[in-house]
Structure formats: C-alpha cells, structure tokens
Amino acid sequence: MRIVLVGPPGAGKGTQAAFLAKNLSIPHISTGDLFRANISQQTDLGKLAKSYMDAGNLVPDEVTIAMAKDRMEQPDAQGGFLLDGFPRNAQQAVALDEMLSAEGMKLDAVLDLEVPEDEVVKRIAGRRVCRNDSAHVFHVSYKPAEQEGVCDVCGGELYQRDDDSEDTVRKRLEIYDTQTEPIIDYYKAQGLVVTISALGKVDEVTARAMQVLGKADDQ
C-alpha cells in the first residue's frame, strides 16, 4: 500500500507510523529522517537543504520533493510506503501525484489521525523532560514522576520545554491547520481520506487504522 499519514502535533503520528509500517511490511518515510539522512551523508540535496537551514530560511518545496522522490525510488519502497510529514502543502501533494502517475502508480489512502485540540494541548503541554537526558520524558497526567520535578531514572531536574508551552502548542496547531487543511481537501476530492480517532491506547489506535486501511485497500 501507498499511504500518506497526517495528524496534528501530539496525535502520536510517529508512533503509529512505526507500528503501521511494520504491520504492513512497508518502509516508514518521514521528512525528518530524509533531511537527517541527506545532511549526514552530505548528499547534494543534503548540502543544499543545509545551506537554506543555516541561513535561517525554509527549505524550498523542490528540494523536499526531490529528497522524497529519491527515497521512494529505493528498492524497499517499490512495494509501497508510508509517508509521514510529506506532502506538507498542496503544491507537494500535486508533485507527489505527478511522481506516482509517471510510474503508473497512485496512493491507496490518506490516513487522518483525529485528536481534539484540547487533548493535543494536554498531551504536549503536560510533557516534562529531564535536563540530564532528553530521552527521559514524563507527563504530569499520563506518566508522572514519583517525585514532582525529579527524573525517576537519574534524579535530574524535569522541566517543560519552551515549545511545549500551551501558547506555543496552540500556535503550532494553527499552523498545522493552515498547512494541512488544503491537503486534506485535495485528497478528499479524490476519495482517499480515511479519518480515525487517535484517542485511546496505542494498540487500539493501530487496530482502528488497520481496519480502515484494509477497507481502503479493498476498494
């Protein structure tokens, strides 16, 4: 299957992408991983992207599209893929359709993970990270530390990152809505969008996704 995964910050998109890709035996292709791989390997595209980033500018769509195209042409993606973070806007969505069409392919589904805004704010604004090791993450509601403000693992101080504040989260959601709504509308016109609730346990969300993707594959 060829799937695009969309969902707001805090929807558990990365977690679900990993589980779904494994269950469907297709590679998980994320924009973040593409950028990191190209920059670390110092590919021509990586050097170009880094030049924009170092200057504090957004990486142009054509660079992101070229990275995605290169990755989708790798042997492990010939039987399908799950795209996460791409396309990010309508222009990229059109470019993706053109890429696939040139190869006689098309998307099977666009999976939209739905989470109420207040739940997203609660999930992200409640995160607390250890100053000693950012891999030690807690949550004031879902995974509280035994002692408030102290990491259970190493005893380091727990703090709220600036980009996890409620105001910042709501601004991120506004940007997401602005960028993503045109993409969802574009794919709805093609009958590709399947929406599921991303509330509940991870395995419950995965099961819902597999069920709707199975129906989409049958169509």
Query: Structural class of the secondary elements?
Result: alpha/beta
Q: Strand order, biggest sheet? A: 2-3-1-4-8
Biggest sheet descriptor: 5 strands, parallel
User: How far apart lie the N and C ends?
Assistant: 12 Å
- The proportion of residues forming helix, as a percent range, comes to 40-55%
Shape: globular
Instruction: Please report which band the strand proportion falls in: under 5%, 5-15%, 15-25%, 25-35%, 35-45% or over 45%.
Output: 5-15%
Question: Any idea what the radius of gyration is?
Answer: 19 Å
What is the residue-mean pLDDT, rounded to a whole number? 93
Describe this entry's structure for a reader.
The chain is α/β, with parallel strands linked by helices and 219 residues long. It contains 8 helices and 8 strands. A hairpin with a 6-residue loop joins strand 5 and strand 6 (137-139). Helix 2 crosses helix 3 (44-54), helix 2 crosses helix 4 (61-72) and helix 4 packs parallel to helix 5 (90-102).
Q: Which key phrases capture this entry?
A:
219 residues, single chain, three-stranded antiparallel beta sheet, globular, 8 helices, five-stranded parallel beta sheet, alpha/beta
Topology:
Layout: E1 2-6, H1 13-24, E2 28-30, H2 31-40, H3 44-54, H4 61-72, E3 81-84, H5 90-102, E4 109-114, H6 117-125, E5 127-130, E6 137-139, E7 158-159, H7 166-188, E8 193-197, H8 202-218
Briefly characterize the structure.
The protein has helices spanning 13-24, 31-40, 44-54, 61-72, 90-102, 117-125, 166-188, 202-218, and strands spanning 2-6, 28-30, 81-84, 109-114, 127-130, 137-139, 158-159, 193-197. It has 219 residues and is α/β, with parallel strands linked by helices. Strand 5 and strand 6 (137-139) form a beta hairpin.
